[in-house]
Amino acid sequence: MAYEPLISFKRLYYGAKFCIHIIKPFYALNIGIGYKVSQSSVKLKVDRRLRNCLRTYNMVNQTFIYIFGIMRNMAQQRARIIGIARHRLSTDGDGVTTLVAFHGCPLRCRYCLNPQSLGDGGRFREYSPDQLYAETRIDELYFIATNGGVTFGGGEPCLRPQFISEFRGLCGPEWQLNLETSLNVPVANIEALLPMVNTLIIDIKDMNPDIYRDYTGQNNALVLENLRLIAESGRQSDCIVRIPLIPGYNTDADRENSRKALEALGFIRFDLFTYQIRKH
Q1: In 3D, which of 210, 173, 202 has the Cα closest to residue 269?
Q2: What's the Cα-to-Cα distance from 231 to each of 38, 103, 194, rounded to whole Å?
Q3: Cα dist. 146→151, 157, 168, 178 in Å?
Q4: Which of 39, 138, 207, 226 is least enclosed by beta carbons within 10 angstroms?
């Protein structure tokens, strides 16, 4: 494993710490003063070797705290984020939310709303979960007071299940965590995310495979699998499914067919709207 040497250091550290824990009671705050170790009033004095051992312990302790800090930063997931928008009210979930948009998406939608999420992401800042939490926690009072929190969008946030898992561990259960997702990701990703998130805002495009492929450049087999997974998990009521009318790609009848197919799976919350195409 990549971190095996550091893991070995960790074992050494805790072994040394245990040994020092055993002998530390024999150390007195003032050299020459005895330490009472039993009811028989047996007194032992600290010698030079013990003092040196304790000094070594303190050095080792500080060194390993530093090493473990480095190891934590190395081990944490990191992700490029194209934007963070604060103080969004009831647009990306309940209450006040902060929208965090990841770089990277498996789709190539003809009318992509965030084209900056595609291609080279080198110009965007890379965050660890710790760094993102430090930046978003400024609004924690708003989140808790309004039952709000952080909405992960993009791009496709469900490409980052480990990052979101680590972020949940930092913010705790008080924040609402929402996903704006196409669901066109491996089923294992959604399985990992379902226990951690409160609401899924699903941009379904269209349930018809041919329409979906024409518009996104991908097939929707994974989308259908993930919809079934969510239904089998009983989480339909935690989902808002967006079904757009996309000029030139689907019709009102197509959209109605999509809604009926989703209702058959138990989904009940829909957002029906029409894409507004800007002509340049």
Answers
A1: 202
A2: 65, 28, 11
A3: 14, 23, 18, 14
A4: 39
Query: 211-217 long-range CB contacts below 8 Å, 24 or more apart?
Result: 211/249, 211/250, 211/254, 214/249, 215/109, 215/110, 215/246, 215/249, 215/250, 216/107, 216/108, 216/109, 216/182, 216/184, 217/107, 217/108, 217/109
Reading the block at residue 48, the tokens are 């030079």
H or E segment at 270? strand 270-274
Rounded to a whole number of angstroms, the distance between the first and last alpha carbons of the chain is: 53
Looking up tokens 């998990």 gives 233
Burial 176-195 (b: 16+ CB within 10 A, else e): bbbbbbbbbbeeebbeebbe
pTM: 0.73
Q: How many residues does the chain have?
A: 280
Q: What is the spatial distance between Cα 117 and Cα 81, in angstroms, rounded to a whole number?
A: 9
How many CB atoms are closer than 10 A to CB 38?
7
Residue 3 is which amino acid? Y
Give per-residue pLDDT as tens, 217-253: 999 999 999 999 999 999 999 999 999 999 999 999 9
* Percentage helix, strand, coil for the chain under 3-state DSSP, each rounded to 5: 45, 20, 35
